[in-house]
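Section 3.1: Structural characterization of target chains.
Under the original work plan, the team committed to producing a structural model for every single-chain target entering the pipeline before any wet-lab resources were allocated. The record below documents one such target. The sequence was received from the expression subgroup and is listed exactly as submitted; it comprises 165 residues.
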Amino acid sequence: MERVRPHPAGHAPAPSAAAGGDRRPPEPLLVEVITLAQRRLAQGLAAVLGEEHCTVDQWRVMRALAADGRAMGELSQALLVPQASLTRLVDALADDGWVYRSQSDTDRRRIRVHLSRRGRTRLARLDALAAAHESALRAAVGTGALGTDDLGPLVTHLAAGRESR
């Protein structure tokens, strides 16, 4: 006889299809819906930014540097990007002249990244494209300015795969 382990939350396990249970797929969990919405939103934004030869991650780095320069470690934590990946992103941005690096006066091992003048001009253009993309998406969903009440319809719309391009 097969031993049944109790469910961690104290609930009975869902009946299996073999036991004649319901064959409908389970309701998606919040993490699934939000992940789908994020990926579809990022795909749409990637297409828009790609026309300007920029990736979403490069744009995010530039936005994080808009106010002032940041140390690489701080930037990595703020963007939730692994240090090695961030180094590659910054290398590409620096090669194109959008950002530059400087060493700390007190600790030569500490590198700060700054947005260049060219980078600021480029970021303004990219931000305008991203804002237009978001406006088109909001129009498709029927929501106005960003607010927490708008997130539900937006996430549902995106998760369903109905993103406006």
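The CA atoms of residues 45 and 130 lie 7 Å apart.
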